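Technical appendix A lists one of the benchmark inputs used to test multi-chain prediction within the project. The record comprises two sequence entries:
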Amino acid sequence: EAQVTQNPRYLITVTGKKLTVTCSQNMNHEYMSWYRQDPGLGLRQIYYSMNVEVTDKGDVPEGYKVSRKEKRNFPLILESPSPNQTSLYFCASRTGLISYEQYFGPGTRLTVT
Amino acid sequence: KNQVEQSPQSLIILEGKNCTLQCNYTVSPFSNLRWYKQDTGRGPVSLTIMTFSENTKSNGRYTATLDADTKQSSLHITASQLSDSASYICVVSAGGGGFKTIFGAGTRLFVKA
């Protein structure tokens, strides 16, 4: 089954404790993105990647890092989480450039206390 | 500034009735516009996608329209069902590769029996 998986699905952590949210897709897509979703706001893009070792900042990259060492994996790293990073995070992968289909993961609900 | 605005913010309708959701955007250069359905606590799922030259696209009981001149789109849901209760998100991609994606805040639809 074609899918995007994220782990963990739920995470409660404390300020400053480094964490990684994993994302994996089995569709051989080159393009992947991370988004955060906050109440009353649309999804906002954090980082995206066009291929292995090619990443770029989205709209809200501050406080986040990503890596793309393999095509299927695109982890999101929070080196020193803060309470304002409490949010619902989605990883997504897409089929191509213009008329693409984008597939979202199930989401990771992160709470930073 | 690139923006996507959706209205209404929320909507309650009776099962079997039709409804129309609105999306206005100021995104340049325009690449494509898509509508997503997002069930609570889950990732968005694509309903339709339209490029500049398309002005209508259907997917079952969902019909999206696009007026590129006025920069408006609508999503019409016919013969609503309880399972249509969800958030509907309008997303506009900018640029040649469509990597710059701007999400609307969504319309929360409640279908009542």
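The interface with chain B takes residues 4, 31, 33, 35, 40-45, 48, 50, 56, 90, 92, 97-107 of chain A (CB under 8 Å). Chain A is about 0% helix and 50% strand. Comparable benchmark entries are summarised in Table A2.
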